[in-house]
Design brief:
The complex is a heterodimer of chains A (about 475) and B (about 300).
Chain A lengths: L1 H13 L15 H7 L2 H5 L6 H5 L3 H31 L25 H39 L5 H9 L3 H27 L18 H7 L8 H34 L6 H13 L2 H11 L5 H9 L12 H30 L2 H9 L4 H29 L2 H7 L17 H11 L3 H24 L2 H4 L6
Chain B lengths: L1 H12 L4 H36 L20 H8 L6 H32 L5 H12 L4 H13 L7 H12 L6 H8 L3 H9 L4 H12 L1 H17 L2 H6 L8 H8 L2 H30 L13
Helix pairs in contact in B: 2-14, 3-14, 4-7, 4-8, 4-11, 9-10, 11-14, 13-14
Classes of the chains: A mainly alpha (about 475), B mainly alpha (about 300).
Chain lengths: ~475, ~300
């Protein structure tokens, strides 16, 4: 192990700029297309696919051109109007009684809601950005066709391109659908929500609102005594971080410990034990959480059981005392999370090369030494990204908090309870109260917190710097 | 037993007595069995409770005793036959269809992305991984309302189109969850790929002939999480399904615990929870055996 880490360090110093997986840019860049391109290539920046058509890449050329035409049709029909409304008429129009010239009442004009304008506007921006990116693809393809024609005599045919998608550029065909899904159902909604943070879209302006700049950010940070204020934000943030830390690392280490106990050579019935612990995965999480919620109520099953045994005189304040509530959610999250950890960790534990342990045993290493010097480095190496995603997942762990404690105990008049995470607070603000703007601001702050924590740890982790360390 | 012999052999070489080693092993065994038993009971208790509650003759939520006293099969019968208030059967079918699609799509997406990130080197690779990492840090709840508006613009929020909408919502972003799979693929020796490519395999062939079979344990994990998502999620479903004939089981069960239903539906809620858990449990047991398969011996020599 020591040699590996030394090796890693040496590699790090040497290849700070050009990493092991550095891929040199292809000769066909947008810049080169303009500098070295011929007439057809340069004209491709206006008429997509022209260069490809000129090099007899008929199908490819037509595809490029078709996409350009589709975009133009879209912009002329709806896109330009949507963009214009987004920037100048976000207010929308209210439904007004209209009259014809002779004074007969007409059907009222359909009301235009600000949300719809915002959505179509953001979508148009999004599509335009995609189109700009596609333009660079087009330019590169144009110059590539010219370059290959000049150097090899003929540009690759459509069939060649398809074959290439199966081998050298398999990543294009493989990543296309997953990326498209992420773009439409993750990035677009996010942009939409982020744009709401700069509007007055709250319970007072549910259908017609306007841009307000950074006013919402100011409200969340300052202490002006509103229901959303800086003090409350800080306390919720602090609890969110504490929760995420305990929920992640307690689950990880206890789960790994259990998995190792089950994985011991002499433990019999490995399948049985794994089955026992994975039973709780089979029960939908929100079912078990709701059941536990009813069980832990002041008149719930647990309190009644303990009282009938005479162990306690009054009901335990599971969700009525702040500290009790916080410990309860962390403990119950162990019940929910450890089976998942066992499931994931088992496969990796079995993957650790057996010869490492054999060698260690020959050298007389005991169980603890093997754990510290083989298991842990290997596990940390493989699971660092997993730990980070779990941490961020816990910061955003909506289900456990919302279904289990509902954020309780909630002080009277406060918009967030003592066990509310930023995420459940956000949900309460948006879905329950309709204050989309403050919700969006809190979402952005949550993101900033996570981004700082995660990028720092991730960038300094072994599996990021040296992905092939354990091959 | 052969293990024990081999290991006591090691112990000899390390200069320790076989007897001492044997004693320690027995103590370790006993301790670990005690630990596993105690924890196993803790893990099973709530599940057993839900199971017994589903047969409870007294269907209200307030109970005098921890476990029910009178048992009946009526709750299950009512759950599927009394469809005028809540049609649990159709909710179940709907969720099952969604889950099957999401399971397949999410496994494919995750494998594609993980394979590209682990095995191929291209310019967009590092930016892609960083972007996905950054996106994962945005609270997903934040997008719920926005996703609803987008689906509405696509005309997918009325009638049975919500099934398509939910399939899209649950599976579209799954490609972002590739990190675990990539970590696993990173531990597969590169020499396997190289050998296959020397034999004339394309990247796609390496993918489904070499990498897929080795990744089976992780695929199992991914399939389970993909299949579970529609059963477990209720925030997204609640935002998208506005009427009861669009509900998934999660929403149905959640509905049963609302104030106006809980007094009559509590036992049926437990019955529904048991019914939902059964396909998941069966799937899980079938797939469980893949966990045993380890990687040892994939590269010889």
């Amino acid at each position: 192990m020591a040699t590996t880490s030394k090796h890693v360090e040496a590699k790090k110093r040497k290849t700070k700029k050009v990493g092991a997986d550095y891929v040199a840019p292809a000769p066909w860049t947008v810049k080169h297309a303009f500098q070295k391109g011929d007439v057809f290539t340069r004209l491709s920046c206006v008429i997509f696919g022209l260069s490809n058509l000129a090099r007899k890449q008929i199908i490819k050329g037509i595809l490029f051109l078709a996409i350009e035409i589709l975009y133009i049709i879209y912009m002329v029909n709806t896109g330009a109007l949507a963009l214009d409304k987004l920037f100048t008429h976000l207010q929308g129009t209210k439904s007004e009684q209209r009259f014809s010239a002779s004074g007969i009442p007409l059907a009222p004009a359909p009301e235009e809601y600000s949300v719809t304008i915002l959505l179509y506007g953001v979508a148009a921006l999004f599509i335009t950005a995609a189109f700009v990116w596609f333009w660079t693809v087009n330019m590169r393809a144009a110059y590539k066709a010219q370059y290959l024609k000049e150097t090899t005599g003929h540009a690759p045919s459509f069939l060649d391109d398809v074959m290439d998608l199966k081998d050298g550029r398999a990543y294009v065909s493989m990543l296309f659908l997953p990326t498209l899904g992420i773009l439409i159902f993750t990035i677009l909604p996010l942009l939409f929500m982020i744009s709401m943070a700069f509007t007055s879209y709250d319970s007072a302006h549910p259908s017609h609102f306007d841009w307000v700049g950074f006013a919402n950010f100011k409200e969340v940070v300052s202490n002006d005594g509103g229901t959303v204020n800086g003090q409350l934000f800080l306390s919720v943030l602090l609890w969110t971080l504490i929760w995420a830390f305990f929920a992640t690392f307690l689950n990880y280490f206890l789960g790994m410990f259990l998995a190792m106990v089950i994985n011991r050579k002499t433990t019999r019935g490995k399948m049985f034990w794994r089955g026992v612990f994975s039973m709780s995965i089979a029960v939908p999480q929100f079912v078990s959480l709701l059941v536990m919620n009813t069980m832990l109520q002041p008149t719930g099953a647990v309190n009644r059981l303990l009282q009938s045994w005479g162990w306690i005189s009054g009901p335990l304040p599971f969700f009525t005392n702040a500290t009790w509530a916080r410990v309860t959610v962390i403990v119950i999250n162990l019940w929910v999370g450890i089976p998942f950890t066992i499931m994931q960790v088992t496969g990796i534990l079995q993957n650790i090369p057996a010869d490492l342990y054999e060698a260690a045993e020959l050298d007389g290493a005991n169980w603890w030494q093997q754990f510290c010097n083989i298991t842990m480095p290997y596990m940390i190496f493989v699971t660092t990204p997993y730990l980070i995603t779990t941490f961020t997942g816990n910061v955003n762990n909506f289900n456990v908090i919302y279904l289990l404690s509902g954020g309780d105990p909630t002080p009277v008049g406060a918009s967030a309870g003592k066990t509310d995470l930023l995420i459940t607070w956000l949900y309460k603000l948006t879905v329950d109260k309709g204050d989309y703007n403050s919700g969006a601001v809190i979402g952005i702050f949550t993101f900033i917190v996570l981004a700082v924590v995660a990028l720092l740890t991730y960038r300094s982790s072994g599996s990021y710097k040296n992905e092939e360390g354990f091959r | 037993m052969s293990n024990t012999q081999v290991e006591s052999g090691y112990a000899d070489k390390a200069g320790k007595g076989i007897h001492n080693q044997h004693n320690r092993r027995v103590i370790g065994d006993v301790l670990s069995y005690i630990l596993l038993t105690v924890l196993g009971i803790i893990w099973l208790l709530p599940i057993v409770w839900v199971f017994l509650e589903s047969f409870n003759q007294n269907s209200s939520s307030y109970q005098r005793t921890f476990f029910p006293t009178q048992y009946t099969f009526n709750n299950y019968k009512q759950l599927f036959t009394e469809t005028n208030v809540m049609n649990f059967g159709s909710m179940f079918l709907r969720t099952f269809i969604i889950a099957c699609f999401v399971c397949v799509i999410s496994v494919a997406f995750v494998l594609f992305v993980a394979y590209c990130m682990s095995r191929m080197r291209f310019r967009f690779r590092k930016p892609f991984m960083n972007i996905v990492l950054v996106l994962g840090m945005f609270p997903s709840i934040m997008a719920v309302v926005a996703v609803y508006f987008i689906l509405k613009a696509m005309n997918l929020t009325s009638g049975n189109w919500t099934v398509v909408a939910l399939i899209l919502v649950y599976s579209a972003g799954t490609g972002a969850g590739f990190y675990m799979m990539k970590g696993y693929m990173d531990t597969i020796p590169n020499s396997l790929d190289e050998a296959a490519m020397l034999d004339g395999c394309t990247r796609w062939q390496v993918f489904y002939k070499i990498i897929l079979p080795i990744c089976r344990p992780m695929i199992v994990y991914q399939a389970i999480t993909g299949f579970l998502a529609p059963w477990l999620d209720f925030v997204m479903a609640k935002a998208i399904c506005r009427t009861q004939d669009q509900y998934t089981v999660a929403l149905g069960l959640w509905q049963m615990l609302q104030k106006e239903y809980i007094s009559q539906w509590y036992a049926r809620f437990a019955a529904g929870a048991v019914v939902v858990s059964i396909p998941i449990a069966i799937l899980f047991m079938v797939m469980q055996r893949f966990y045993q398969e380890s990687m040892s011996g994939s590269v010889k020599g």
